[in-house]
Amino acid sequence: MFSFQSKWRYFFMFLGVQLVVMALLSREGYQKRVNYFIRIFRKPDHARNNTAVTAGVDVYANLLNLSRVHPHRDDLPYCPKKSPLIAGPIHVSFPSGLTEAVVQKKNPLVVRGGRYRPPDCEALHRTAIIIPHRRREHHLKYLLYYLHPFLQRQQLNYGIYVIHQAGNYTFNRAKLMNVGFREAMKEEDWDCLFFHDVDLIPEDDRNLYTCDSNPKHAAIAMDKFGYQLPYDAYFGGVSALAPEHYLKMNGFPNNYWGWGGEDDDIGIRVSLAGMHIVRPPLRLGRYKMIKHKLDAGNDINPKRFNMLAKTRQTWKQDGMNTVEYEIVSKDYLPLYTNITVNIGTEKGLKPLPKPPPTHAKALPSPAPKEPAKVPAVKESKKKSQP
Ligand code: UDP
Ligand code: MN
């Protein structure tokens, strides 16, 4: 009898405890608690170690409501100083199966040559993106996927230029930037140029793609360096210069063939020309680098340290005032302007032995959406005038 009663007592006590636990869980938010337990067992994210990071928003969120064309483009008001479309951290991942056609579809307001202007206001800034490139089509696709909406969120008037090195000779990143500068400035009076590695994806749209009163280093917190600046003078990855900054430092060096050194040379030029490097806050200048190995045709440059030691003597004799190249082709593709260029070798410019392999297969251009402010010519075999 006694044992039967106590059994029931324990049963009701157990039931009571269950009810209290359930009531607590539902009051505090069941989901939150479940998440808490899941997080305990999940592998820690590299990013979480340094700064508090939220998952970030979809980079295309809030661009959907932009109307196609404003009826009276001429009397548009200026865009506000701070874009209302800016949202902060952006979710960046690299899903397989992304195609350029998808990127095009997601960016209906981007016109021929990869140009864009906000449809509802007159942009306060004109920014050109210069991307040095060879055999990184896969990376380029992801960069375009993220960069177009990123720049649209900032209400910029922008254009994307891919400077593709023709042929198989050793890669020369800095010289391609010089080509990009000259060719982009021929087309439009850009007030800011972003020199942008193809594999770096910005993770926060408050990292503004506009220029400052001094050259700006934007890619200051990359995942591969643990979201820290690797060393004080670092100027690699993504940097922004106004045309007057670029010319004041005689552009970038032309003679760094292969991997390494050129970014430090550029950093040294900034101070030799009497300027200094400015940077956004560490929590905003965040980038994910698409993982890759050292490319064929871009071996480490063994001369880089000797060359860097002489930048003080060489910067005025080598740069924008001496750059020589030959445009092989210029194509106004739906998502970017591709400029394929022969930059020669250390020994100077020589005609390419055979027609170079072209860049990523150009997708057929869709019917023109809006006349772009770019000349409708295809340049070929045109020598630059340094
Ligand atoms: N790059 C390229 N093809 C190459 C080598 C380099 O397109 O064969 C470009 C690309 O934009 C790349 C940048 O040059 O992001 C810098 O090279 P890399 O990514 O090898 O440098 P790191 O990752 O060491 O900064
Ligand atoms: Mn890289």
Please provide a written account of the structure.
This is Beta-1,4-galactosyltransferase. This protein is an alpha/beta fold and 386 residues long. It has two domains: 2-42; 48-342, Alpha-Beta Complex (Spore Coat Polysaccharide Biosynthesis Protein SpsA, Chain A). Helices cover 27% and strands 14% of the residues. The chain is built from nine helices and twelve strands. It has helices at residues 2-28, 30-41, 100-106, 137-153, 173-187, 243-248, 262-272, 304-309, 311-314; strands at 115-116, 126-133, 157-165, 192-196, 200-202, 216-217, 221-222, 238-241, 286-289, 326-332, 337-342, 382-383. Strands 1, 2, 3, 4, 6, 8, 10, 11 and 12 form a nine-stranded mixed sheet that branches. Strands 5-9-7 form a three-stranded mixed sheet. It starts with a helix and ends with a strand. Mean pLDDT is 85; it is low at 27-53 and 361-386. The site of uridine-5'-diphosphate has 15 residues, from strand 2. Residues 132-136, 171, 173, 197-199, 236, 259, 295, 297-298 line the site of uridine-5'-diphosphate (UDP).
Secondary-structure map:
Elements: H1 2-28, H2 30-41, H3 100-106, E1 115-116, E2 126-133, H4 137-153, E3 157-165, H5 173-187, E4 192-196, E5 200-202, E6 216-217, E7 221-222, E8 238-241, H6 243-248, H7 262-272, E9 286-289, H8 304-309, H9 311-314, E10 326-332, E11 337-342, E12 382-383
Parallel strand pairs: 2-3, 2-4, 3-11, 7-9
Antiparallel strand pairs: 1-3, 4-8, 5-9, 6-8, 10-11, 10-12
The protein binds uridine-5'-diphosphate and manganese (II) ion (MN).
Uridine-5'-diphosphate (UDP) binds at residues 132-136, 171, 173, 197-199, 236, 259, 295, 297-298.
